[in-house]
Design a protein that fits this description.
Pfam families: Cyt-b5 (PF00173). Its EC number is 1.14.19.1. By secondary structure, this protein is of the alpha+beta class. Helix content is 46%, strand content 6%. It is rod-shaped, with a radius of gyration of 33 Å.
Length: 247
């Protein structure tokens, strides 16, 4: 009865003060109810379609300012699903959540009690884990070569390819084809040529020059194989299973 009175009878009475009973009933009653219902339904539609998975992407709820604007703060729906016991939807001070603000005001005047807050450390942990997951996906897209797809070769096979004219060198057990990079190398061609057919790990990691992170990323685009055992294995050489050293 209270809901019916405030939703329809009260608007009619207020409109009637200006001689517009029907206007109060239609505009302030029916149309307003329709708009409020549509706004509420957006929580189960737009809030699961538009925005970011801030804390968890295993389910569909998302966070977005636009949804918050049309649902009076319910737009940070990913947070709500991840931490349902928390009375808030938005936890950052500048995020739009008038419902949270009103509940807080009611608490100050004694109309609300025992408001639930999820542990801050767990909230931050969830966000960092999701950020790391997104970062890992981005890095996977940028990674030039999947190491699991690279062929594994013996040291002797590596030397055979060098004798056939390949500009290959090894660093930390991986084989790199630097043929197209020789002319671009800032240290000159002779520096790269001195490592071809050899294990250039020490040279690359500070023995000659301690290369930058960008150099490591560029080098990763040249991977062509993996050396079994990580390098030249002495026991195989003594048993004659490894080719003679490159001269």
């Amino acid at each position: 009865m209270i809901a019916l009175s405030t939703a329809y009878i009260l608007p009619c009475c207020i409109g009637g003060l200006w001689g517009d009973w029907w206007g109060g009933f239609v505009y302030a009653g029916i149309i307003r109810t329709f708009l409020v219902q549509q706004s509420t339904f957006c929580v189960n539609s737009i809030a699961h379609w538009l925005g970011d998975h801030t804390y968890d992407d295993r389910n569909s709820p998302r966070d977005h300012l636009f949804t918050a604007l049309i649902t009076l703060g319910e737009g940070y729906h990913n947070f709500h699903h991840e931490f349902p016991s928390d009375y808030r939807n938005a936890i950052v001070w500048y995020q739009y959540d008038p419902t949270k603000w009103m509940i807080w005001v009611w608490k100050q005047v004694g109309l609300a009690h025992n408001l639930k807050l999820f542990r801050r450390a767990e909230i931050e942990k969830g966000k960092l884990q999701q950020d790391q997951k997104k970062l890992d996906l981005t890095l996977a897209k940028l990674r030039s070569t999947n190491l699991q797809l690279l062929p594994v070769m013996e040291w002797s096979e590596y030397l055979d390819q060098v004798r056939k004219g390949r500009s290959w060198l090894t660093i930390a057990g991986l084989v790199y084809d630097v043929g197209t990079f020789v002319e671009e190398h800032p240290g000159g061609r002779s520096m790269i040529y001195s490592g071809i057919g050899k294990d250039a790990t020490a040279m690359f990691h500070g023995g000659v020059y301690n290369h930058s992170n960008a150099a490591h990323q560029l080098l990763a685009t040249m991977q062509v194989g993996i050396i079994r055992g990580g390098g030249e294995v002495e026991i195989l050489k003594r048993h004659g299973k490894c080719g003679p050293p490159l001269k």
